[in-house]
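Hi again,

Forgot to attach this to my earlier email, sorry! This is the prediction with IPE bound. I've pasted everything inline since the attachment limit keeps bouncing my files.
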Amino acid sequence: MDSKSLINTERLPKHIAIIMDGNGRWAKQHGKHRVFGHRNGVQSVRECTEAAAELGVEYLTLYAFSTENWNRPALEVNALMTLLVETLGKEVDTLMKNNIRLKAIGDLSKLPKRTHKALLDGIEKTKDNQRMTLVLALNYSGKWEILEAAKQLAKDSKSGKLNPDDIDEEMFSNALTTAGIPDPELLIRTSGETRLSNFLLWQLAYSEFYFTAEFWPDFKKESLYKAILDYQNRERRFGKTSEQIIN
Ligand code: IPE
Ligand code: IPE
Ligand code: MG
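Structure tokens for the complex follow:
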């Protein structure tokens, strides 16, 4: 049996987050420039989006560009920003056909104008779609996001809009860029690295982590099914004992 048919669709993660890593090493393996790896990574984005939507996953968040990624060579940063514009231009129709809503998290105003515009256009066009939400993390940093939320809550406290003693987890979550989106049950990182790289620090507090050595351009539908199956074989205890969970 293939992995897909083994998945229990009653126990799917509602939200899967992926750190798409290893494009550069994949390109090197093929004797090509890093940008070739990014270009080939787009096909994995397509496949995983389609596979997640077909299964019934509600949210898929993809880490596409971190605030730290600005420190890469300008040529690579520019190529990534261009690739984003190109891909958004090409894929919005597919998102419409598949009834997928696009969202973005991160400090979007700092993106190049045309990238920002392509993104906002895509978000606007797909805003009423309901099958799945695809969230792109762009110029995203978990620490940045937490600081922004803290600043906003501090301002609201100072202006009297809010009593600081009322700040609880729910209010804090709602001040983050992911407001309204449930925390990911499953985090996947490709390429063998086992770190968070400043991704969704608050939201991943109790997520299951799945690491695979596959480079992102090699991560296709079957790889996603395997990750979900691995997730479904785990026992999420949330501090309780195993006996409490089973009974
Ligand atoms: C992930 O692949 C894509 C981005 C971070 C934009 P990398 O470009 O980090 O690939 P490696 O890690 O250098 O192989
Ligand atoms: C994390 O990958 C960011 C994205 C996948 C967009 P990196 O390749 O930038 O992370 P580090 O540098 O290995 O921590
Ligand atoms: Mg990397």
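The domain at 9-141+183-234 is CATH 3.40.1180.10 (Undecaprenyl pyrophosphate synthetase). The mean pLDDT is 97.

That should be everything now.

G.
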